[in-house]
């Protein structure tokens, strides 16, 4: 499944009435309700729909972002290129286009790889509890990042990333990204390599 991201209409994608109401789901990804972003991450978290995007360049390097210091969960940890949640009444295609534009000013075609469910607490600050769809894409553009969301960013070769994770692991990278990267590298490496012209 591919998601076209060449065109982003900020007005059309704005779901102002729903704000940051996230989509609650069951383990089969059936919608079961809605909850504010803040409440969905309280305590052990409430299972909600999410997505992660991994963007590669023509050299096969992955774009990593370092989360802003103001983030409630895992501030200043390194993570995948972009991750977020579709809002209430927002499709996954619209949500991925919106966040790529808002966080990175990037537009590219995305390919869906798989879904996975995970939960992870962050001290007493709250938890992630997500059913996450994972997408990959290739962009020739350098990002122009939203500094309220992203502290820093860099491109990294897969082999160098594997070495960093082996050394620093949970002290440096978000838990969902480490889960995603392990599965992508072991099960979807051919899809990643097919992105590079």
Verbal overview:
The chain is an alpha+beta fold. It has one domain (2-195): Nucleoside Triphosphate Pyrophosphohydrolase. The protein has helices at 10-13, 37-40, 92-104, 158-168, 175-187, 189-195, and strands at residues 2-3, 21-25, 31-36, 48-56, 62-67, 78-79, 82-84, 110-122, 126-138, 150-156. The chain has a five-stranded mixed sheet, sandwiched between helices. The protein has a three-stranded antiparallel sheet with strand order 6-5-10.
Offer a concise description of the structure:
By secondary structure, this protein is α+β, with helices and mostly antiparallel strands.
Structural descriptors:
197 residues; alpha+beta; Nucleoside Triphosphate Pyrophosphohydrolase; five-stranded mixed β-sheet; three-stranded antiparallel β-sheet; 10 strands; 34% strand; disordered N terminus
Overall pLDDT confidence: 90
Radius of gyration: 16 Å
Q: Please provide the ordered H/E string of secondary-structure elements.
A: EHEEHEEEEHEEEHHH
CATH fold type: Nucleoside Triphosphate Pyrophosphohydrolase
Class per helix and strand makeup: alpha+beta
Classified in CATH, the superfamily is Nucleoside Triphosphate Pyrophosphohydrolase
Strand order of the largest sheet: 1-8-9-4-7
Low-confidence stretches: 1-18
Q: What is the C-level CATH assignment? A: Alpha Beta
């Amino acid at each position: 499944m591919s998601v076209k991201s060449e065109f982003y209409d900020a007005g059309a994608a704005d779901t102002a009435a729903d704000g940051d109401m996230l989509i609650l789901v069951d383990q089969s990804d059936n919608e079961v309700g809605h909850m504010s972003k803040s409440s969905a991450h309280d305590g052990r978290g409430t299972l909600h729909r999410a997505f992660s995007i991994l963007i590669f360049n023509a050299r096969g390097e992955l774009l990593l972002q370092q989360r802003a210091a103001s983030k409630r969960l895992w501030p200043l940890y390194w993570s995948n290129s972009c991750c977020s949640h579709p809002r209430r009444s927002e499709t996954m295609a619209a949500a991925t286009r919106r966040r790529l534009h808002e966080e990175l000013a990037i537009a590219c075609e995305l390919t869906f790889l798989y879904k996975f469910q995970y939960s992870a607490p962050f001290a007493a600050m709250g938890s992630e509890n997500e059913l996450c769809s994972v997408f990959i894409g290739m962009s020739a553009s350098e990002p122009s990042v939203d500094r309220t969301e992203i502290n820093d960013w860099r491109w990294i070769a897969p082999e160098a990333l594997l070495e960093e994770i082996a050394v620093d692991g949970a002290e440096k990278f978000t838990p969902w990204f480490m889960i995603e990267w392990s599965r992508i590298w072991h099960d979807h490496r051919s899809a990643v390599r097919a992105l590079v012209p």
